[in-house]
Amino acid sequence: MDLKQLRQFVAVAQSGSFLNASTMIGxxxxxxSVSIRKLEQELGVTLFDRHPRGVVLTQAGQEMLAYAQDIxxxxxxxxxxxxxxxxxxxxxxxxxFVGSATFSLLPRLMQAFQRLHPLVEVSLSEMTxxxxxxxxxxxxxxxxxxxxxxxxPAPIDILPVENDHLxxxxxxxxxxxxxxxxxxxxxxxxxxxxxxxxxxxNLRAVAVLACQTAGFVPHVTQEAVQxxxxxxxxxxxxGLALIPHKVxxxxxxxxxxxEVTSGGTLIGIGLALATLADGATLATRRFRxxxxxxxxxxxxxxxxxxx
Length: 307
What we know:
Number of helices: 10
Number of domains: 2
Number of strands: 13
Strand content: 15-25%
Protein name: HTH lysR-type domain-containing protein
GO molecular function: DNA binding; DNA-binding transcription factor activity
Shape: rod-shaped
CATH class of the largest domain: Alpha Beta
Radius of gyration: 32 Å
Distance between the termini: 79 Å
Helix content: 40-55%
CATH architecture of the largest domain: 3-Layer(aba) Sandwich
Family: Belongs to the LysR transcriptional regulatory family.
Domain HTH lysR-type: 1-58
Structural class: alpha/beta
Keywords: DNA-binding, Transcription, Transcription regulation
């Protein structure tokens, strides 16, 4: 007894005749009849009562049908599962992301990817850029959404997926004029809330370099890891801070945000997709392909920063 015979048995039982079954499965009637007869001989029972107009299941045939259908269905499902695994449709994907990616990029990217590849099992972990780069380099993570620019070279590929810039967050009641573009050059005497030097070195380096370009080393009163924590400290009055624009415009706070320049230009940052330079999995390559086709978000009308 093999799977082919079970499929043939189910076809005959469902169609009610050898003739109809032979058409259904694409096998001539004589070899189909021989195959079923051999199955009956092997099992030692008669599965069908044969009549001129067709066949009827015997008691043994009725008992066998449910089992045969279950085996045939399971075999079909198994074949489909193996095909999905072979094609990468069910391949797992591990991804790390910086917290600020959740404000815009991560939801849009995941929705686009899951529409195209709904069977891929994605595991998500929030982490700093530094940890994501290390995990990808060590093979512990497939892909990361990280802050750029990066400080040090690493054996990874970087695909920029979201451009952004830093804006100035000003505590409630601060005398700095609003409704204008601030100049970092005018803020050398101000206290700053800064990103943690060990946990968020990239974003901190960009902020500190912007201050140095403006001609001063910032006086740091407090440090924090998460952007939301930095913003809370600013709202509490500990100082100014430089915040990603796409995060700032989604926040409700008593503090205010306004555009700021250093050396006459905006302070550019962004988010990028980080993957292994070599040896990326099929799921990773597909995720990267989706990211390459993702358009920059078109925001709904919102108050301009500084207004």
